[in-house]
Amino acid sequence: MVEGNGAVSLILVSHSAEIASGLAEMAGQIAGPAVRIVAAGGAVDGSLGTDGGRVLEALRASAHGAGAVVLVDLGSSVLSVRAAINELTPEELEHLSVADAPLVEGAIAAAVAASTGCSHAEAARAAEEARSVAKL
Amino acid sequence: MSPSSDVRVERAVCLPAGVALHARPAGSFVRAASVFASEIFVSANGRRANAKSILDILSLGAEGGVELVIDASGPDAAEAADSLAMLVPALA
Q: E strands of chain A, at which residues?
């Protein structure tokens, strides 16, 4: 069960600010307003890349209550999430799940799961099931 | 568990004209299905999707006016099928 108030949040980490914010908008429309979605895309100056500081800030800010599922696109997004995790306390980490899932489908699945009031671990599992759902 | 726990209930219902089972309506449908313990499937266009999986539901490509067949199996199958069959015409 979910501890604390509110639904599980989503944190979207992408090399592209536009991908992260566009996906946040799309997943938010499907899941409804109860699910908070944080877009952490792009480098510090808004160019393509990842901003480790912003990723850490996003994870830390959600590491309480119902917690959050973290979704990543590729390569250094994964590395920046790993680096952020190393900075967090074991108590903070209990509120976070990182989903090993495709970003778009995973975010949609996790957002809808979160809107049903599930735990962050269950929302991450919903995202990971996206790998086995046929698109065509 | 009561002896009725294996009941299977089917309901056919049409999507409102102009309301596809995409985006917000699909999310509402999956959220509504997720509160039931029964296994619930939706068929449309010759495909069958798990009603509790948003990605499965989106893959149906069910456009407005299309007939959905909802089938539920489990302890609350009748309640699930009835409740979803009532929800579909109200999707917007």
A: 9-14, 37-41, 68-72, 96-98
DSSP B66: -
A-B contacts at Cβ under 8 angstroms: 39
pTM reported for the whole predicted model: 0.90
Residue A18 lies in a domain: yes
B3-90 maps to which CATH number? 3.30.1340.10
Asked if A130 has any chain B CB less than 8 Å from its own CB, the reply is yes
Express each pLDDT in B6-44 by its tens digit: 799 999 999 999 999 999 999 999 999 999 999 999 999
| Model confidence pLDDT, tens digit, residues B38-89 | 999 999 999 999 999 999 999 999 999 999 999 999 999 999 999 999 999 9
Those residues with Cβ within 8 angstroms of residue B86's Cβ, 6 or more apart along the chain or in another chain: none
Measured CA to CA, the distance from residue A67 to residue A61 in angstroms comes to 9
Give the whole-angstrom CA distance, residue A118 versus residue A45: 35
Task: Identify the CATH number of the domain in which residue A75 sits.
Answer: 3.40.50.510
Q: Residues with Cβ < 8 Å from A121, sequence gap 6 or more? A: A97
Domains held by chain A: number: 1
Task: Name residue, tokens 């901003």.
Answer: A51
CA distances for A32 relative to B43, B48, B53, angstroms: 24, 25, 16
DSSP letters spanning A30-59: HH-TTS-EEEEEB-TTSSSSB-HHHHHHHH
Q: Which of residues 47-66 of B touch A (CB under 8 A)?
A: 53-56, 58-59
Domains of chain B, by residue range, sit at 3-90
